[in-house]
Amino acid sequence: MATFGRKKIITTYKEINENNIADVLAKSYSIHLENLTAINNLYNYYRGNQEILSRVKAVRSDHNAKIVENHAFEIANFIAGYLLAKPIQYIANGDVNVDKLAKYNAYVVNTLKESQDMVLAKDRSICGTGYRISLPLDDVNQPFEAYVLSPKNTFVVYGSSIGNKALIGCTYHAETNKNNVEEIIIEAYTKDYYYKFNNTTSVLVDKKPHTMGEIPIIEYPLNEERIGSFEPVITMLDAINLIDSDRVNAITQFVQAFLVFKNVEVNEKLVKDLKDLGAIQIADNGEIQASVSYITQELNQSQVQTFKDDMLQTIYKIVGMPQQNSGGGGDNGIAVIYKDGWTEVEAKMRPNELAFKDSERQFLKLSLAFTKTMTKGKVDLDPSLIEIKFTRSNYENIAQKVDAFVKLMSLNNIDPLLAYQVVGLFSDPEQAYQKSQKFIKGNPVTENEKGTENK
C-alpha cells in the first residue's frame, strides 16, 4: 500500500456562486474520491488490516503465519495523545476582560471540545487531515456548537490565488430518493451562502444566505502535504510484519521438517509406520549406506532481532517518537529525556502544534463572532488578544523552571509579568500573575491580610 499524502483541492475560480458551484463541486468531489481511497486504506491499516494478512506463500504454503505487529496504531495514538496530553486553553495575551474570557471558555467546555479535539487529532494522525464545523445557536447561555466531521465525507476547496484561501467547505451524505435510488447530497458553505447540491443528478437543490461571515467548516491538516503520522514508514512496518511472520514460519518448519530417506525404499506403509510408531528400522546392504534424517536449518534469531530493533528505532526517529531505551544506572531525569530522544519528540511536535493552532485560530475567530452576536455584545473579545495554549509540557524540568523564575523575580529592573510569561511554569501566565499580585514584592499588603493568609 503506497500512499503519499492527500491532495489539496484547489479551484481556479476566484469566488463560488450559483453559476459555477455545480462545476466546482463536481471537480472537487472527484479529487476527494481519490483522497478517500487512501483515507480508507490508512484507517484500515490503523485498525490492523495490513498487507501481511493477504500474503500468499508459494513455497510450503501450509506454513504461512500472518502476524500483525500494529505499530501504526501505536504511532497514531501517541502523536495524537502527546499533542493533546492536556486540554487546549485560551488565555489572555493582552488587555482582555478576564471575566468575559472565563465566560467564553465555559461555552467552549460545554461543546465537549476536549474530547472532540482528541478525535480530531486522531483523524489528523491517521490520514493527514481532519475537519471541524462550528455553527451558531440561538441561545444566550450557549451561543455556538462544534462537531468533528469525518475526513471520509468532508472536504474544503481552496482558491488558486496567493494564500490559497478557503472558498467553500463541504460535507456530504447519501439519501435514498422516492425511486429508491441512493443519491449523494453535498451541503456546502461559502462565507455568505449555504448550498444543498445533488451531486448524483448535478442539481442545485437549495440556496440561502447565512450571516456567519465565515466558512463554518475548518480543515485541520497535520502538515502541508497532509501525510499521516505513520504513512512515511508503512513499507518498514510491513517489513516488520514479514519478519515476525517468517520467524513463526521458521519455528513451525523446524518442528515439521522434511524427512530425507537416503538409499531407503519409501512407500506409503513405511511412512505411516514411522508416523504411528515414531521409529523405523533400516539396514545397509553392505555396499550402500542407508540413512533417514531431517532437513533442518534454524533461523539465526539473534541476528533477526538486531535487524528488527534497528528498524524500529529508525521508524520511531522518522515519526517523532521516543526511543524504546531504558535509562542506565545513575541517569537522572534530564539524562533519560535526552538519551531516549524526548527533546527530538518535542522538536518534531512543534510543526504539528503550529498547524493545529493555525486552524484553531479560525475556530476561535468564528466562535467569538457567534458569541458576540448571540450575547448582544455582552461577551465581546478580540481574537488577536487571545493566545491558544498547549499545556502538555508545563511540568517538564520543573526544578530548573522554578530556579529561573526565582532569579527573574529577584531582579528589580524587569516587569514581574515577564517572569511569569517566559519560564513556562504556568499554563495561563496572565491569570497566575493576577492571582499573585498581593504576594509580589512591592505590592502593599496589610498586616491583617497577611495574618489571614497565614491561617
DSSP summary: helix tally: 13
Low-confidence stretches: 444-455
Number of domains: 3
Shape: flat
The radius of gyration computed from the alpha-carbon positions, rounded to a whole number of angstroms, is 32 Å
Number of strands: 13
- In percent, how helical is the residue content? 40-55%
Q: Helix/strand-derived class?
A: alpha+beta
Describe the biggest sheet? Answer: 6 strands, mixed
**Spatial strand sequence of the major β-sheet:** 1-5-6-7-8-9
Q: How much strand? A: 15-25%
Could you give the distance between the termini?
Answer: 67 Å
Helix-strand string: EHHEHHEEEEEEEEHEHEHHHEHHHH
Please state the average pLDDT score.
84
